[in-house]
Amino acid sequence: MTAPRTILITGGAGGIGLGIARAFVAAGDRVVLADRDGTAAQAAAAGLGSTARALALDITDETAVATAFDALAADGGVDVLVNNAGILSVHGAVVDLDASAYRSILDVNVVGTFAVTQAFARHRIALGNGGGTIVNLSSIGGRQPTPGMGAYESSKAAVDSITRWAAIELAQHGIRVNAVAPGPVLTPMLQAGLPEGSDARTAWSSRIPLGDLAEVDDIAHAVVFLAGAGARHITGVSLAVDGGQLLT
């Protein structure tokens, strides 16, 4: 029987992050739910049981990220990092978007992802045995533009680039780095805005060859696969989980 791993999931208090945590717990692993909202992370961890714990963490604070990994190292270390934290709150056309708003999404989605990736890599190397796995959450928007969403989508294109960059440099340490790139995902928030049978839901679904938006579990299972032994010879990949939308 494989020993349980410790999985650090940023943005783990809800939505896709919490779904990923559930999948790892079901696989027999331990999870650390890192989230800027420490109270929400505590509640989510309590709901998952004794194999989950919470960590209040702002991924844009490099000092806090380094301190968190120091504490985790003292408690046995982290085997898998899931860079899930990100924001989708900045919208606007090229001619309208304020540069400061664009900078705010890059700070979280790009620089934050980089900061945690760097800290995890240093953590694994310092443990002396290398290894470990990173799975980043990207988006098919990094490859398929949508008017008004360019700030978010270009940040996710950068996440794909960070994935490849880290994969080629960290391979010598046995650290694999991949990404999962979802299309639209039926998180509780999106389900509320796109109820089944609504015109908006039908319009989105019509763009997807497999006929509907992804469930959170579809994304979670892809993350667990890329973090597992079955993907031992896969690195530098951004796996689209989009029902075929990139084909259209």
Automatic annotation (TrEMBL):
Top enzyme class: oxidoreductase
GO MF, one example: glucose 1-dehydrogenase [NAD(P)+] activity
Enzyme Commission no: 1.1.1.47
Pfam families xrefs: adh_short_C2 (PF13561)
Residues of the Ketoreductase domain: 5-183
CDD domains in UniProt: SDR_c (cd05233)
Domain of life: Bacteria
Matching SMART domains: PKS_KR
Keywords: Oxidoreductase
Xref: InterPro entries: KR_dom (IPR057326), NAD(P)-bd_dom_sf (IPR036291), SDR_fam (IPR002347)
Record family assignment: Belongs to the short-chain dehydrogenases/reductases (SDR) family.
The name this protein goes by in its record: Glucose 1-dehydrogenase
